[in-house]
Amino acid sequence: MRCAPISGLIVVMAIAITLDAGIQPVVAQQGGPIRLAPLPATTQRTPDVSVPETREERPQPSRVMVEGIGSLTEDALGLLGDGSGGLGRDMWSGSRRVDVLRLLRDLPESYPTRAAYSLATRVLLTAATPPVASRKGEGMLGLRVEKLVAIGATESALRLVSAVSAREVPKNLTDHVVRAHFRNGNFMSGCAVARGFDGDYTDIFWQQALIVCQVSEGNTQQAAFGLDLLREQGLTVSPAFAAAALDISQDGAIRIGLPETVASPDSMTFALWLAGKAEMSDWLVEALDPGLLPALFGDPNVDPDLRLMSAHRALRHGVLDAADVVRIYRELKVPDGDINKALIAFEDVSKDRLLAYLYLAAEAHTGGISRSEALLEAWNRSRESGGFDVVALTTSALLDDVPVTPDFAWLAGDATKAALAAGDKDRALAWYRLVLRQASIVPELANAAVLLWPQMRAIGHVKRGAFALIAGTGVTAAVTGQQVTALAPRGPVPWNAKRFERWIDLARNDPSSADVGAVLTLITALGDPVDDAQWGLVPFRQAQPAMMPDASVLAGLTRASESGRKAETALYALYVLGQSGEAPHASLLGAVAEALNKVGINDVAHALVREAIVVEAP
User: Fold this and answer.
1) Are residues 115 and 246 both part of a single domain?
2) Which domain holds residue 147?
3) pTM of the entire structure?
4) 141 and 243 assigned to the same domain
5) 439 in a structural domain
6) pLDDT, tens digit (0-9, with 9 covering 90-100), for 260-281
7) pLDDT tens for residues 493-518?
8) In total, how many domains does the chain have?
9) Are residues 58 and 128 in the same domain?
10) What is the DSSP letter of 483?
11) β-strands 12-16, 64-65: how paired?
12) What are residue 35's DSSP bridge partners?
């Protein structure tokens, strides 16, 4: 499976060891495997761990072949370098290994936003000098691979394993490789790796894996025997796993419990359900952890509506990219006539199918005028159905065929909103500038210029601490020779106090508009100079319940960021976001954004704030 944003990236590993220097990661050259040690004679090869071609062909990083290296050297491996999305080779600087291992072991496996998911993959995939170990102990690579698999980044996990050895699956990573293949629904590859494992099968995982393989191959009686062995050995599996194994051994049909009694299953239970071709329901798709979704949206034999539901949920959580979802739409192969009928009588189709049809209808219209009208219809319909985020993400690229000119000024406000929701900052800025140019002659765009300003302000700033002049005060001070006070960094959308106060006035008088206090909290976290007078314009709202992360996590976030420990700050930020529910409170998002800004992870801080403000001010 694919995980954003690492398609086509360079495999990175650490190879430079000197007498006085630590391990330093270097970028592997393109052009095939690099042999760092003589190849031993082999009589049998463990099956390759490369990703099965069940999805569209993607550029593969060059592989690195490593033989006989220690766990510390393995820990420096990664797929992302300094120039390809990584957090820097020194990202663990200042962190203690014992603290990093503790954070990795229990790292949350589900995140509420795409920006948070992206941060998780970047931390886990960056090639970096690992923190020094005081004594030989647990390595970091296995934990990183385990967490990549758990969050649904299975393709990345398999590539990272291949960086250790392109010829065989390292023994300490075999269970993670099996889990990755199972989560992809690729039981042939997963079972080949499991049966080639050169180790002790008495562990509960391997016993369960063999049962899953037997079921996938139709050997249900052997699966029942395996379950009996588990019981005899006193190994406890989840009741759901035991029930499924028993069901399939008796009549070949797995019966999944009622929605009120079933939460997201553990990974091996879900693998058994998939292997036994259990009937999935829509309520189950909603209950699944996002990391379990790849097998559903990646299998063309799954019910199309369940596949669409899985894809949309995975898109919202960052497990899928918009291009992947579009590919699934096209595989529906629905005639244009059926799409048009469904859009007229949309009550007759599911919400997820409607979102797919809105995209397909817009894609079918070519030419600037026709495409723009279809896009506006798609955006408006999706707002009514509650799927604007999905349609914005999938249709953003279709704006390529609509020129950003005054002839399309009527579309500019909506195009800006859609591009913002899709995280397409450059496109959003281009359309917003058209809004500003036309605002003096088109009243609707004058309002749009104000209403979109906080969202546009969050698309990105220059680096923290940079000097900026803000119209009026800074210019006057420079001309008169008076001391100039450095203000908030100027971004692509300059600070404008009057426009900001106008937005507050419009928003607080519109019951359906944003939570003004939440928006002020979020842009303040990025360093904007919101003063007491502006806060005084904010109405108090009734308190809303919020899910709070553990107090020690918040304290750890503060300690790590103030000490400049980059990757450690990112891990604590992921704990905060992963423990805060589906809609983290603005104060928590603000705290995370401030902490990430302090250690230089500005792009993620901006993305978190932008995503939240777009939700607050649709």
Assistant:
1) no
2) 12-199
3) 0.82
4) no
5) no
6) 566 788 899 999 999 988 888 8
7) 888 888 888 888 888 877 667 788 88
8) 3
9) yes
10) P
11) unpaired
12) 65
